[in-house]
Write a structure and sequence with these properties.
This protein is about 25% helix and about 30% strand. The protein contains 6 helices and 12 strands. It has helices at about 25-30, 75-80, 80-95, 160-165, 170-195, 195-205; strands at about 15, 40, 65-70, 105, 110-115, 115-125, 135-140, 210-215, 220-230, 235-240, 240-245, 250. Strands 1-2-3-7-6-5-4 form a 7-stranded mixed beta sheet, sandwiched between helices. Helix 3 packs across helix 5 (about 170-195) and helix 3 crosses helix 6. The longest helix has 22 residues, at about 170-195.
Length: about 250
Amino acid sequence: MSTKAPVWPTDYARHVLPEVDSTNQEALRLAPGLTRPTWIMARAQTAARGRRGRAWISAKGNFAASLLMRPAGDPADAALRSFTAALALADALAMLCGPQARISLKWPNDVLLNGAKVAGILLESAGQGGSVSHLIVGIGVNLAEAPPPEALEAGAMAPTSVLGATGLVVTPDEMLDYLAPAFAAYEAQLVTYGFPPIRTAWLARAARLGQPVTARTMSETIEGRFETLADDGALVLMTANGRRAIPAADVFF
């Protein structure tokens, strides 16, 4: 386990709060007055949400934070931050947990620790006319405790925590100290070189690459072999009816 945190990125601000309804909601409220990318971390959340409005259960000692930023480009460009956030989480967890942590990435926005879900990412944006006025990258990490299996929807990934999987105690402050510099580095890479190197790095850590998966959209269920990511981040499956690019779905193993 690393003992010295990397240097905090100079262009990023940080707010730490004792309790909020959700860090994404707090970021939205603070957005008009913030002039640079800002991390908002809460030690407790009372109304956290996951993808598609699902409740996100965050026990005491777990990590809950949101990054408010104003990226250039359109909503599709902004959505690529789910990949940079996942890579930053993977790097931060690897540095904090050491070799006993086997970390992989599950499309579109989950991080797995030793094969079980340890973190999730929720992106929310606002704008008009094809531009993005702000983007909120919400991140939850089970540091101390995983939610009980009965609290999850049917077919969901088994949850885990850093403490349960590795025996290591990682505090939310330590998590943010490692996550923020990692995210800033990937953000700089994305802005400078575009999505291709991010795509390559993400695929190198992809869970179930080359294996059968099931993708469920709002209207259909698609089964196929996970081949790659498309140039825009879509999931590419080889199905019984040929290759299929899926821009949005929940994936089940």
